[in-house]
Design a protein that fits this description.
Layout lengths: L2 H13 L7 E2 H7 L6 H9 L11 E2 L12 H12 L4 E2 L2 E2 L8 H6 L3
Parallel strand pairs: 1-2
Antiparallel strand pairs: 3-4
This protein binds a DNA duplex through α2, α3 and β2.
Amino acid sequence: MSKNYIKQKILDTIRDIPYGTVKSYGQVAEDAGVPGRARLVAKILTDSADVNLPWHRVLRSSGQIAFPKDSEMYLEQRNRLVAEGVLIVSGKVKMSKKVPDFDALFWAPK
DNA sequence: AGGATGACGGGAG
DNA sequence: ACTCCCGCCATCC
């Protein structure tokens, strides 16, 4: 189990996140076979500027975007998520895979 | 060598 | 919802 093998595994896991859905750093780590290594996932994202990588589909377990609210990256990530139709309420993405109900959609702040 | 720092997480109060 | 606090571990002073 080389260091690169794990890195590759994590990148693959991120690439496999379906369009319009999200996963937390911890979930990615777990699915990649390295539970408890959320920080490693973040680190790998930091130094992989791969354009084909859906980095915007990875968020905190709380559903929050990991960047400061006013940062460039924050806006970029938020825009990409919205573009994929991901529902965001009060700055938090709905982590549930369940389809949001009518009320949630109707009352969601613009 | 040792302390501080992260695109983090979970538990306790 | 919010604050501390600790586990985690690669990196950087």
